[in-house]
Amino acid sequence: MDQTLEAPVGLAPDALARMYHLMLVTTLADKKSAAEAKAGRLQAAFYPVRGMEAVCAALGEVLRPEDRLISTYRNLGDALAKRVPLRSIMAELYGRTEGTSKGKGGPMHLQDQSVGFTATTGIVGAGLPIAVGLAMAAQMDGGGSATVVTFGDGATSIGAYHEAMNFAALWRLPVVFVCQNNQWGEHTKITDYAPSPELAQRAAAYTIPTERVDGFDPMACLRALQTAMERVRRDEGPTFLEFVHYRLTGHTGTADYSYVPKHELEAALERDPAPTFRRWLIDNSLLPEERIAEIEKQAEEYVEDAFAYARSCAFPPPEALYTDVFADDSWVRSLSDE
Predict the structure, then answer these.
(1) What are 213's strand-pairing partners?
(2) What residues contact 247, with CB distance under 8 A and at least 6 apart?
(3) Phi, psi of 239, deg, nearest 5
C-alpha cells in the first residue's frame, strides 16, 4: 500500500474541499461525542470512527442520491457521507425527538430513507445480507443504482458475511463491500482471530474483484471506490475493498484503550487522516491556506450548531413508546380504552 497521496486526474478543488470538510466534521463531531459520552450526557453508547475519516470522505464523493448505504454502529462518518444532516444524527445520539429515529434508536439504528442511508445495525455482519437483498432488488428493477455496505474486520468471520459474499458473486449483484479494517475486533487484535490478516485474500475466494487499500490515504480510497462503483454501474458485479487503517480510540467513547501497543498507536496517529490531508493540500498547493481556514471555520460552526440544536430538542413523550413498533396499533388503542 502506497503511503504517498496522489490525487486522481481531474479532481476539482471543490471535491478536495468537500472531502476535507467531511473529514474534519467527522473528527470534530467524533471527539465531542466521546466527551459527551464520558460526561454521561448522551442517551446511548457512542462508537468512535477516528481513523476512518479518509474512507468516509471518499464514500461521500462516489455515492449518488439514488444509491443505498448500509452501515454498522460505527457509523458517524458513513451517515455524513450519505448526506444525513449532523443535526439529525446528534439529536438521535441525545435521544431527542428530532433524531433520525425520533430519539428511540440511538447510534445502532441511525437511518435516513430520504437520502438512501437505509439501515445500520448493531449486530456484527448483519448489514451484509440486507445490502445483498437491496442490490438484488436494484438489479431486478434495472435502475442502475448501487448498494454499498460498510463493516469492520471482525464481520469477515461471521457466517452472514460468507452467505452474502457467495450470493452476491453468484448473482453478480451491484454491491460494493467496504471492509473498514481498523485491526481490532473490539478488544482483540486481528492477528489473534484471523489466520490471514489480509482480508482481501479471503474475499478473493468468491472470484470477485478485490483490493487492499491504504485506508489512511483519502486519494487511494477515492480511486478504489471510483473503480468499484464504475464496475457496479456497468453491471459487472460486486467488488470487495479492504481499507486498512487503525482505530485511534477505544471501542466505545468511554472504553479503556490501554491494551493497544503504544508504538502502534503512535505510528497510526502520525497518519491521522484529517491533519495529514490538510498538510498534503497545502504542501501541494491544491487549496490555498485561506480556503482551508474557511473550511475549518465552517466545520467548527457546523458541529457546534448540531450539538446545540440536539440539546435543545425535546425527549420523546411517554406515549411514543408504543409508536413505530407494530404496523397495527389497535392493541394500543384498546389499552387506552380500558
Answers:
(1) 243
(2) 48, 50, 51, 182, 183, 184
(3) -140, 145
Topology annotation, domain 13-324: Rossmann fold (3.40.50)
Going by C-beta distance under 8 Å and a sequence separation of 6 or more, which residues neighbour residue 196?
202
Check pLDDT > 50 for residue 2. no
Judge contact between 43 and 93, C-beta under 8 A. yes
pLDDT at res. 188: 86
- Band of pLDDT at residue 175, cut at 50, 70 and 90: very high
The answer to whether 195 and 225 are in contact (CB under 8 A) is no
* pLDDT band at residue 1 using 50, 70 and 90 as cut-offs: very low
Domain ranges of the chain: 13-324
445483498: which residue's cell?
Answer: 132
Task: Give the pLDDT of residue 4.
Answer: 57
Which long-range contacts does 246-249 make (Cβ < 8 Å, 24+ apart)? 246/51, 246/182, 246/183, 246/216, 247/48, 247/50, 247/51, 247/182, 247/183, 247/184, 248/48, 248/50, 248/51, 248/272, 249/30, 249/34, 249/48, 249/50, 249/51
Residue 188: phi and psi, rounded to 5, are -110, 125
